[in-house]
Design goal:
This protein is α/β, with parallel strands linked by helices and 530 residues long. The chain contains 23 helices and 17 strands. The chain has a seven-stranded parallel beta sheet, with helices on both faces. Helix 2 runs parallel beside helix 3, helix 16 crosses helix 22 and helix 19 crosses helix 23. The structure holds adenosine-5'-diphosphate and zinc ion.
Length: 530
């Protein structure tokens, strides 16, 4: 097949059909790859402009572009948009009557459409195959492609069948898969499950410069939340934001806490009646000054650009989910805040949720590693943005971003090299067999029958941090993990182990500095926790 990949006509179409004057980062590279006829896996965050990457090539290639998407509400928006640009488009999903579907199929087979948006359940039905075979499909677009992966957060069985459906077609179309999920495991699963042919894999745009990242560690979440909201209202005036909480109960409780008449406070969770949920969602999307309190059930496919902040009242299960939820702020490119309010209890909550899922051993280990990563995010004293970009393996060179809670706030910094050396030697003496609590207990020199049994009382590091509060010792340990100087090990991350960095600290080749955390907005006494 020959494609027209002349630069001028690409930019003409960009301007005249889509109304954009230039590409965003990464878009052109993805479009080229598709135009060259290569299977393409594009990994870009939500809101970075993935739709254009398949819509523009579709305009320039002959044939139908089929877009598989799990989001019914989004389908309609996209189809309306394309039709308004003179690109004949339709969608097929469970929201339509049989007669409606029949009419669409007829037009499809007549070659009327340029785009078909279809739900994965429909696409993979046996009865749908003749429609696919009888349409001249040039490209099969798989949106939210991470749904093929059991490691992703939104695994869907119907997504698992897409690959087979495509390979069973008489003529195999080009595959372009899109996702905002960037972990290697998920990437591999997508390529394998969709049976993509030597795909070009393009990762782009994970940095969201307009988002200000912040972690607040506290024991008083309610106080912190109120203070944070106050600070944000001072900064932004009337605006909309989302507060995510872990459970339905928390959502109900936080809503009551915040319902003071200054903002429209709405809630959303899976325990509510669908009609009520939808009503709240619409009000939020159309409102100018509204606050949504929600579980992670809220947000998939929400297209509201002027969300000025997200606050996580609890730590989510991994950085992936966090980045996706928090990233709903600032889609208009304007300055916005993403705050995570953390306490140790969040770890307990996440572990309980994991137990409930009855994961098998490998999934458990992986989930646990992911959980450790976000815990480390909560404790790092380094740049939060760099931490995230490192996690997504997007290349970066800068040292600190200058625009996150750890970079800009004038923290009190303390040198804990000596304390770190004590902690590290203790872990070494304990043969890397124990977790933070025992290590801290040993350093503190606690009375504990187990210590006698294990002959720990005789160890030289026993009690060498007697003068410190045990919570302070623990905090040092968590911070060392956050900065990658210690690591969690064991099948559920219950032990601590040393690495190259810890050895450098022992040999006096690396100094350890931690910051006392002071949040950028709304300082309250509760936030003064170490
Ligand atoms: P995603 O699918 O990655 O979440 P969308 O495709 O919905 O993101 O795009 C997000 C927003 O960015 C849309 O409002 C879209 O119109 C806009 N957009 C996409 N590409 C460009 C561009 N090159 N210039 C300006 N705006 C763009
Ligand atoms: Zn930073």
């Amino acid at each position: 097949m020959v494609f027209n990949i002349d630069k001028k006509s690409i930019s003409n179409n960009l301007r005249h059909i889509f109304g954009f004057s230039e590409f965003r980062e990464g878009q052109e590279e993805i479009i080229r790859s598709i135009m060259e006829g290569r299977d393409t896996l594009a990994i870009m965050p939500t809101g970075s402009g993935k739709s254009l990457c398949y819509q523009l090539p579709a305009v320039m290639r002959t044939g139908l572009t089929v877009v598989v998407s799990p989001l019914i509400s989004l389908m309609k928006d996209q189809v309306d948009f394309l039709n308004s640009r003179g690109l004949e488009s339709c969608f097929m999903n469970s929201s339509q009557s049989w007669n409606e579907s029949k009419a669409i199929v007829k037009d499809l087979l007549n070659g009327r459409y340029k785009f078909l948006y279809v739900a994965p359940e429909r696409l993979t039905m046996n009865s749908f195959k003749f429609i696919l075979n009888d349409s001249d499909i040039s490209t099969m677009v798989i949106d939210e492609a991470h749904c093929v992966s059991q490691w992703g957060n939104d695994f869907r069985p119907s997504y698992g069948r897409i690959g087979k459906t495509i390979t069973s077609l008489v003529k195999k179309p080009l595959i372009a898969a899109f996702t905002a999920t960037a972990t290697f495991q998920v990437r591999e699963d997508i390529v394998k499950s969709l049976e993509m042919n030597y795909p070009s894999i393009i990762v782009h745009g994970f940095d969201r410069p307009n988002l200000f990242w912040e972690v607040v560690r506290t024991r008083d979440k309610d106080g912190t939340l109120l203070a944070e909201l106050n600070g944000l209202r001072k900064k932004y005036g009337n605006c909309s934001g989302i507060v995510y909480a872990a459970t339905r109960n928390d959502v109900d409780r936080v809503k009551d806490l915040l319902d003071n008449g200054k903002m429209k406070v709405l809630k959303y969770h899976a325990g509510m009646k669908p009609t009520e949920r939808e009503k709240n969602q619409d009000e939020f999307i159309n409102g100018e000054n509204s606050l949504m309190i929600a579980t992670n059930a809220f947000g998939m496919g929400i297209d509201k650009k002027n969300i000025r902040f997200t606050i996580h009242y609890n730590m989510p299960k991994d950085l992936e989910s966090y980045y996706q939820e928090a990233g709903r702020a600032g889609r208009d490119g304007e300055e916005s805040n993403c705050t995570l309010i953390f306490s140790r209890k969040d770890i307990v909550i996440q572990r309980l949720l994991m137990e409930k899922e009855k994961l098998n051993r490998t999934s458990y280990t992986r989930r646990n590693e992911n959980l450790q990563s976000i815990i480390n995010y909560c404790y790092t004293s380094g740049c939060l943005r760099n931490f995230i970009l490192d996690y997504f393996q997007e290349f970066q060179t800068h040292r600190g971003c200058g625009n996150c809670g750890n970079c800009v706030v004038d923290h009190e910094v303390s040198d804990i090299t000596l304390e770190s050396q004590m902690i590290i030697s203790c872990i070494y003496r304990l043969r890397e067999f124990f977790g933070p609590k025992i290590v801290a207990g040993v350093l503190k020199g606690n009375e504990d029958v187990r210590f006698r049994e294990w002959k720990i009382y005789d160890m030289p590091t026993f009690g060498i941090m007697k003068g410190y509060d045990e919570t302070v010792i623990l905090h040092f340990i968590y911070s060392l993990c956050g900065d990658g100087i210690l690591e969690y090990s064991g099948k559920s991350g219950e032990k601590l182990r040393l690495n190259l960095k810890s050895k450098e600290v022992l040999r006096n080749e690396r100094r350890v500095m931690i910051r006392k955390h002071i949040p950028a907005h709304g300082l309250s006494k509760a936030d003064r926790m170490l």
